[in-house]
Amino acid sequence: KETPLRLAVAANFAPVLDKIAGDFSARTGIKTSVTVASSGTLFAQIRNGAPFDIFLSADARRPQQLVSENLADSDSLIAYATGKLAYVSDNPAISDVDTLIASLNHNPGRLAIAHPELAPYGRAALQFLQKSGLEDEFAGRLVRGKNVLQAWQYFETGNVSQALVAASLVANKHEGKVVIPSFLHDEITQKLVIPGSSERHHDAMRFICYLVSESVQRSLKSAGYEPVQTPGVCR
Amino acid sequence: MPVSGDVTAIWLTLKLAALTSSILLIIATPVAWWLSCWQHRLKSVVLSVIALPLILPPTVLGFYLLLAFAPDSWPGQWWQSVFGTSLAFSFSGLVIGSVIYSLPFAVQPLYTGFTQLDRRYLEVGKTFNMGKFARFSRIVVPLCQSYFFVALGLTFAHTIGEFGVVLMIGGNIPGETQVIAIALYDHVEMGQYQQAHWLAAGLMLFSFLLLCILYGANRGGGRQWNFR
Amino acid sequence: MPVSGDVTAIWLTLKLAALTSSILLIIATPVAWWLSCWQHRLKSVVLSVIALPLILPPTVLGFYLLLAFAPDSWPGQWWQSVFGTSLAFSFSGLVIGSVIYSLPFAVQPLYTGFTQLDRRYLEVGKTFNMGKFARFSRIVVPLCQSYFFVALGLTFAHTIGEFGVVLMIGGNIPGETQVIAIALYDHVEMGQYQQAHWLAAGLMLFSFLLLCILYGANRGGGRQWNFR
Amino acid sequence: MEFSVTLPRTAEFTVEASASLLNFSMVGLTGHSGAGKTSLFRALAGLEKNAQVHSRFKNGALNRARVGLVFQEPLLLPHLTVEGNLQLATRYKASHRTISQDDDAIIAGCHCQHLLQRSPNGLSGGEAQRVALARALLNQPELLLLDEPLSAVDQSTRTSIMQWLRTVADQGLPMMLISHDISDLWLHCQSLLLMQDGQIVCHDVPAEVIHTMYKQSAGGRVQQVAVLAGPVVRAENSNAFTGFKCEGQLVYTTRCQDSENNRATLSVAAHSVVIDKNGQVPTSLDNQFMCEVQEIGPPIDEEVTVSLQRGSARLYATISVAAVKRLNLQNGDTVRASFPA
Amino acid sequence: MEFSVTLPRTAEFTVEASASLLNFSMVGLTGHSGAGKTSLFRALAGLEKNAQVHSRFKNGALNRARVGLVFQEPLLLPHLTVEGNLQLATRYKASHRTISQDDDAIIAGCHCQHLLQRSPNGLSGGEAQRVALARALLNQPELLLLDEPLSAVDQSTRTSIMQWLRTVADQGLPMMLISHDISDLWLHCQSLLLMQDGQIVCHDVPAEVIHTMYKQSAGGRVQQVAVLAGPVVRAENSNAFTGFKCEGQLVYTTRCQDSENNRATLSVAAHSVVIDKNGQVPTSLDNQFMCEVQEIGPPIDEEVTVSLQRGSARLYATISVAAVKRLNLQNGDTVRASFPA
Ligand SMILES: Nc1ncnc2c1ncn2[C@@H]1O[C@H](COP(=O)(O)OP(=O)(O)OP(=O)(O)O)[C@@H](O)[C@H]1O
Ligand SMILES: Nc1ncnc2c1ncn2[C@@H]1O[C@H](COP(=O)(O)OP(=O)(O)OP(=O)(O)O)[C@@H](O)[C@H]1O
Ligand code: MOO
Ligand SMILES: [Mg+2]
Ligand SMILES: [Mg+2]
């Protein structure tokens, strides 16, 4: 029995990856399985021997650290998507950054973000607040989910009326959504790497090439990510 | 070395654990007593319902609690109208969540204890003209002491360690809902393993001492075989 | 509607819960019995140690287990050398993790039950020239039936619902370590709420039925007051 | 006190017992194992939900009074010391004392002084029973039901406790006593209830009930008790005996003095009467009563009951057929009837 | 059988008992409540870890034999029916039977046939005791220790069970019996051990041991019972009476015939004995026994108990102080004791 190609993915990219992996399997006949957890959990697991073939982190730091600890193949360390931060709220009137910052100045409600130290989207959200001078305003009002998904759930279940989350999560939402321009926070570069323990380097590379192929990258745009330009790893 | 945020978290955790255990004892005692007296075909159904909070993964349970706490659901609305605050992301919400999640640990040992109690001791109390409450507090409680200690120990330990529900409904707000389990989780997730080790060791040691005291206090209750 | 991966997860979960509960009963029974017979100042210390797995947040406990299971740690090495497979991210690892995590739920009720048992019933068995094992299986077990059921119910439910430890040491690998709690967690995390609701409802219903059967089977044990 | 109790036990067995007890201080209850004695007590103490109890005690129903019960098993609370058990009973005692003795005297009366610091688990069977008894008494009940309270206590201790209990009962705490011990029942009870298959089949003075029990294997028969009565003459010999005149003869009694009317009575059970014909010879029996044989009953079980008369006083004597032959008894014979005071 | 047991109980109390019993079938053990009887049995049965037991039984130590014990409390297993309890004992019985009767006969001998389907929780005190006894017997022990096994059973049932137990004992299952019931001890035991403060102070035939006990408990009003026994002479007068010879005199009894050994016994309660001095006059009492006054006890409650003796036969008579005066009773007087058959 053939073991599937094991993909370990950070929570925010999971729904997108699910679909891409399905397409990949259909195209190549290589079975895949998707393991979802936070980047931190996956990182800890890989350091302790988790049998993953590709680690798709939500940030660049953790894959980098795996490489520097000789736990991953440095050749395979590449960016696969760039995240975008989005603001969502109940209020359909907020539709661009200016109205957003103005309303944030008046809106005293709670704001859900991902944990800044656990999730890159959380850090980006905090940077956005800092750069727009709202940090102090929201000091006591930040509700921190362990990852963007949880922050999104806080909003979606109605327990907060506004949240700063990954644009990918709100790709289908059209009202009350503002995509934060990327200059208001550090770039959210999501990188992947092939852990050293993987015995399926070849298949993993095939998947990576598929993921960074132009057509797939183009489709990421509608899913709320910026495509990445990858220098010729796959030639 | 623990950072200063951890100290607040420790304090919050103790408050939560103490409150949850106390509330659970207050709730579980009458429930378990009533169950132990009730003879009906549906009893095992009720017992199963009480065990259900264990079945759902804490995060999922937390998710459903989150749905219930939302200001547009009726429990959330009711709470808002009575207390004027929202339940989610508040300490009260944590307490409610923990109580629900730990309910089986309190009810099950007490229920078993009460069913195993020799009711003739209560009849003795009745012939002494003791009131219901006196019989309960002076006969049932001491005879079932061990069960109360087990219930207390399990709920207390479980509340300290539980974080799935709390993480979900608490929103990880330092000083308000960031209990130590979450702080510890954060350290691990951030890869701050050194700090995580310190905090884990401290937490274990402290809880260990508390439990030692708790179980030590039950010494007398260890050998109460119903001799005569 | 549950997806096909869920079916595998359900099967895996049942296997895990059944295995864990059985192993725990086998481990916890002698441990609890020995504890109930042991009279020593350090007893409350041992009891506290057994309760410790509850204190650590599951993810953190899982993290430490992960460290222990790693191929370069000595328990991991030992396992590797004996069984030739790695412990982390394997079903065996899950079983070991669940057993450790649920240990208090099995030991505590049994321990209380054994201490409350009237030892004179055992003396009766001794005068009948019954062997140690016969006395245990024919006198202790039926008299403590309720406690076994509580231990079984708690560990079973807890193993089904637990996911923090399992997520950490199991790695959420479908068909191998992705139990239903994690599948459910995934659905919630990925925003597939409809599927999550279905799965949660199914899980609850199924576990509920199992528990009903379990507690129903204990009917006879409900009223065994040590009359004479 | 009057009661009428219905308590279904098993499909075949129901306790249906009623009795009325007047001015009693200690009434015995006996009967075969499984006759329903314990069940009756539990119903009277209000511990059986299924029981229908109609009762009158003092001025109300029994359930409005404080009914103490010493269970057949001691049931000492294992988490308290002996002293703790006693204190618990004291704590919930009635404000109105029914036992005039103080608590220390009660504990001493039950031979428990030396056990106070002990744990119930380390007591012997008899010690535990005594503590259970003391505990019930310290609660100062208005009526005390004793279910074989001293069955595991040795005879001499039991006798001393029973005697002391009698004085407590006489001082105003009526008691009912279940016992299988004939001499306890005989010596300490004013009357006995005999229970059979859930019913009270006999209520009489101890000698009669006990005789009925002895006879039961050979089929039922009615036993006669005679009562002699008359004006008190003087305190004779000692203060234990009261003498009274009956049909011109002096009769002694130890109980049942009705000091108000200055009359005394004596119940004489047919079995305790000894007859002889040429009797001037003193015997150890304290009463001698000359009378005539009025009728010699039919032999049942090799025994006959002889009716005796003198004036309006009647006596019955149950003696063996052999004795009738030996004494050559005939109707109209004048005989001496001897019986205890 | 020989044993020597040391078992510390409390700081003040240690059981230190030893005895050697030769060829016994039923030996009684009696003594004050708390004297250490139960403790001794527990040590002999190997249930006390702290006990030092040196013993010889058959060809080895006692702990190598199968020692059955009927506990002072019935301790029926509550999760089994009565039948289940009995079956458990049967399942673990010795392969070598010590009781020749079959299991149904044992159950019937303990009067338990009708209880088989019942649950232990619904049994009366006496019923539970009988089941506990049957359970111990069904296990076919080599030595059976009985700790007040029938204390809650009514007298007639108890007598019938005790008689049956005697036949079982005589057929090869030696028993030791703790009891506070004088007539059981007197009637059914070959010898008695008297225990006091943890030591066996007296080991003799029943009459002597019981006499020792009575002397010790002077001060209490104990109903003293004597037992006369002797070889059956003939069925006299009628089939209701059995005559037997005791110290050269003919005594009649209505009960307690031991037909196998052709011996008969009669218990005589001290209160039913009538004494006179010049007694040739026939009375309605069926038994006349000439004997000597051995001792006149101290007056208690205006009554004294007179010890009477003829050869090795003893009798007690409880009579009033007035009667002693009236009869001018002195030690050494020859008197006639009359009592019912
Ligand atoms: N809780 C019960 N459920 C069913 N039957 C019962 C229950 N308690 C007693 N019985 C039955 O009712 C009958 C009377 O029992 P009870 O205990 O009143 O007898 P008793 O006269 O006290 O006997 P003893 O002298 O042996 O104590 C018995 O046959 C007994 O088996
Ligand atoms: N487990 C124990 N721990 C401490 N003391 C005990 C224990 N068991 C018995 N004793 C004490 O030892 C003494 C003897 O007890 P035991 O039970 O042998 O008396 P017994 O002769 O059987 O009395 P009874 O006739 O009342 O049953 C008593 O004073 C009792 O309190
Ligand atoms: O694990 Mo996340 O996807 O960093 O929020
Ligand atoms: Mg009874
Ligand atoms: Mg005893």
UniProtKB/TrEMBL annotation, chains B, C:
PROSITE patterns for this protein: ABC_TM1
Annotated coiled-coil segments of the chain: none
Domain of life: Bacteria
UniProt keyword terms in alphabetical order: Cell inner membrane, Cell membrane, Membrane, Molybdenum, Transmembrane, Transmembrane helix, Transport
GO terms assigned for molecular function: molybdate ion transmembrane transporter activity
Protease in keyword set: no
Cell wall biogenesis/degradation among keywords: no
Cell location: Cell inner membrane; Cell membrane
InterPro entries in alphabetical order: MetI-like, MetI-like_sf, ModB_ABC
CDD domains from the UniProt entry: TM_PBP2
An annotated GO cellular component: plasma membrane
Positions of the ABC transmembrane type-1 domain: 10-216
Topology relative to the membrane: Multi-pass membrane protein
Transmembrane segments: 12-33, 45-67, 87-111, 139-160, 198-218
The protein's role, per its UniProt record: Part of the binding-protein-dependent transport system for molybdenum; probably responsible for the translocation of the substrate across the membrane.
UniProt xrefs under PANTHER family: MOLYBDENUM TRANSPORT SYSTEM PERMEASE, MOLYBDENUM TRANSPORT SYSTEM PERMEASE PROTEIN MODB
Family note: Belongs to the binding-protein-dependent transport system permease family. CysTW subfamily.
Protein name per its UniProtKB record: Molybdenum transport system permease
Automatic annotation (TrEMBL), chains D, E:
Domain Mop: 282-341
Boundaries of every ABC transporter domain copy: 1-222
Matching InterPro entries: AAA+_ATPase, ABC_transporter-like_ATP-bd, ABC_transporter-like_CS, Mo/tungstate-bd_C_term_dom, Molybdenum_import_ModC, Mop_domain, P-loop_NTPase, Transp-assoc_OB_typ1
UniProt cross-references to PROSITE patterns, sorted A to Z: ABC_TRANSPORTER_1, ABC_TRANSPORTER_2, MOP
Swiss-Prot/TrEMBL keywords: ATP-binding, Cell membrane, Membrane, Molybdenum, Nucleotide-binding, Translocase, Transport
BP GO terms, sorted: molybdate ion transport
MF terms in GO: ATP binding; ATP hydrolysis activity
Name of the protein in question: ATP-binding cassette domain-containing protein
